[in-house]
Design goal:
Clc chloride channel; 2 domains; 21 helices; 72% helix; 437 residues; mainly alpha
Length: 437
């Protein structure tokens, strides 16, 4: 006991107490257990999403007209279930976690990250992929992961502070993309309002454990595949400003249109919410028609076309605009589903157009730069965009062109849409304060 006492006396003030306080051990244990579960849940969600997308593609390959039948009908069915049974699951999932972290432990936060909401979000997103909806699973994974972190914390009698929600969401990003650094960057740029040291440790621990869990089962894969080569300085000096300005403005346009039709202060949002099934039907028809005329290229997450573009394969120049329209229509419909993966796919389509201005051997890296410009314009998180793209392609050699593009795109996106998309949408999940009487 004298050795322990001596060690405690030599430690800085406060550190020794943190080592022995029961609540700190409970917090660490809850983080460990929750992060492992998040890694497993993210993998299961990914496998279910891939199966759903494969099922849809197999059916429409045999019967292309199913784009006009399955997609609109499932949009309506999912919208009906969402608005009547689980309204807290509509849309991406990231705004819900932001809203919950602003009022931790409240009844509103409990509803947004409940296990019921997490289960409904997962099932409805998979159902959307069965219908060919261009939705991503990364945003829903953030909401699912935050719910797991909060519920496990409560089992260990740990209060659900803002850091608990932030750590859960960040671990979800890391596990979904297999990008631990991007998970930390996402927590800093999007989820955390005040980033304290204790929250930083919690986030890094959750991200590391969730990432190790998913890697241990699925292997150390690279999301889009490894890229090689580099861009000459002369090319970067031309491509980065073009991709930053044009891509950022296009991404800002997506955000502005979505907020104009679905934002909390939108004059159109009320009318759309009063007719959720009609809205879903019209949006489903738009997505179905686009899927039919593009032979299914705009359906689903867009992972496969994005990977092909990054590998330098030529593709239709209409993919980007068509995917833009399909992703916007899906987001307006209000059905559950993320915009991370579709935004990356639209950015790849924009990059494919941009690559026409440069030598063919530079096409893959130009596509990558285009993705960075558009994605940053949508989410307005340049650090997250750069780290996600470098980790998902193992293209650390392209980090400087990506940073230059992302910084320009963040500025250009703000010119078109001055409100940050996720933070503005989060206001829709926060009850309006009544004026004092």
């Amino acid at each position: 006991m004298s050795i322990i006492s001596d060690l405690r006396d030599r430690m800085p003030s406060g550190v020794a107490d943190d080592l022995v306080r029961p609540e700190d051990w409970a917090r660490r244990s809850a983080t460990l257990v929750a992060a492992v579960l998040i890694g497993l849940a993210a993998l299961g969600f990914a496998w279910a999403g891939d199966w759903a997308q494969g099922l849809f593609q197999a059916q429409v390959a045999l019967r292309p007209w199913l784009h006009l039948a399955i997609t609109p009908l499932l949009f309506v069915a999912i919208a009906a279930l969402t608005y009547r049974l689980a309204p807290e699951t509509r849309g991406s999932g990231i705004p819900q976690v932001i809203a919950a972290s602003r009022q931790p432990g409240s009844a509103v936060a409990d509803a947004l990250v409940s296990l019921r909401a997490a289960f409904a979000k997962t099932v409805l997103t998979v159902a959307a992929l069965v219908g060919g909806a261009p939705v991503g699973r990364e945003g829903p994974t953030v909401q699912l992961s935050a719910a797991i972190m909060v519920q496990v914390s409560r089992l260990f009698r740990v209060s659900p502070t803002a850091g608990v929600y932030i750590a859960g969401g960040a671990a979800g990003v890391a596990a979904a993309f297999n990008t631990p650094l991007a998970g930390i960057a996402f927590a800093i740029e999007e989820l955390a309002v005040a980033y304290e040291q204790r929250v930083a440790v919690l986030v890094m621990g959750a991200v590391m454990i969730a990432g190790l869990t998913s890697q241990g089962i699925a292997g150390s894969y690279i999301y889009f595949g490894a890229m090689s080569g580099s861009l000459p300085v002369a090319t970067v000096l031309v491509a980065a400003p073009i991709a930053g300005l044009a891509g950022g403005m296009l991404g800002g346009l997506f955000a502005r249109l979505l907020l104009a039709l679905r934002g909390p202060d939108s004059r159109f949002a009320g009318a759309l919410k009063k007719r959720p099934l009609a809205t879903a039907l019209v949006c489903g028809l738009i997505v179905g028609v686009l899927g039919l005329v593009t032979s299914g290229a705009t359906s689903g997450t867009g992972y496969e076309p994005t990977r092909l573009f990054l590998e330098g394969h030529p593709g239709s120049l209409w993919f980007g605009p068509a995917k833009f329209a399909a992703a916007l229509a899906t987001s307006i419909s209000g059905i559950p589903g993320g915009i991370f993966a579709p935004s990356l796919a639209v950015g790849a389509g924009f990059g494919q157009v941009l690559a026409e201005l440069f030598p063919p051997e530079q096409a893959g890296l130009i596509v990558l730069v285009g993705m960075g410009g558009y994605f940053t314009g949508v989410v307005r998180a340049p650090l997250t965009a750069v780290i996600i793209l470098t980790e998902t392609t193992s293209a650390s050699h392209a980090i400087l062109p990506l940073f230059a593009t992302a910084l320009i795109a963040d500025w250009a996106g703000a010119l078109v849409c001055r409100h940050r998309l996720y933070h503005t949408l989060a206001m829709d999940f926060v009850p309006a304060r009544r004026p004092a009487s």
